[in-house]
């Protein structure tokens, strides 16, 4: 299948497919005329990568999932390395939540202080 067919079937742009290829997530064959050709399994890979990227994983963090699929598993997230990648992303999200919670508390304190100061000025 051609790159445009893969992109259409997987619900991404041709540019996204090229990016996934540049990151080593796809390995198309090249025909004599230089055209890329993809296998039907690549549709599953592209859909999986798209879903994982939407969860905030980096392209590099998707490698264990893709390897899990290529190993013949029906799901990309049943291999130990995939589970580790999930755990890592959850820890990153927890850290970000903590940072945002602290930021919110500081902003709330500043707002309260500013409102109190303003009320004293009136």
Automatic annotation (TrEMBL):
SMART domains: HTH_MERR. It comes from the Bacteria. Pfam families: MerR_1. Residues 1-57 form the HTH merR-type domain. Keywords: DNA-binding, Transcription, Transcription regulation. InterPro entries: DNA-bd_dom_put_sf (IPR009061), MerR-type_HTH_dom (IPR000551), MerR_fam (IPR047057). One of its GO terms (molecular function) is DNA binding. This is MerR family transcriptional regulator.
């Amino acid at each position: 299948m051609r790159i445009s067919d893969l992109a259409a079937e997987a619900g991404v742009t041709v540019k996204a497919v090229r990016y996934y290829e540049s990151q080593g997530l796809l390995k198309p064959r090249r025909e004599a005329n230089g055209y890329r050709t993809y296998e039907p399994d690549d549709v599953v890979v592209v859909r999986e990568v798209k879903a994982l990227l939407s969860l905030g994983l980096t392209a590099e963090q998707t490698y264990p999932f893709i390897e899990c699929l290529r190993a013949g598993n029906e799901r990309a997230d049943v291999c130990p390395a995939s589970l580790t990648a999930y755990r890592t992303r959850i820890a990153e999200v927890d850290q970000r939540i903590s940072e945002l919670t602290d930021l919110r508390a500081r902003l709330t304190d500043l707002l309260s202080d500013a409102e109190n100061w303003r009320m004293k000025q009136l």
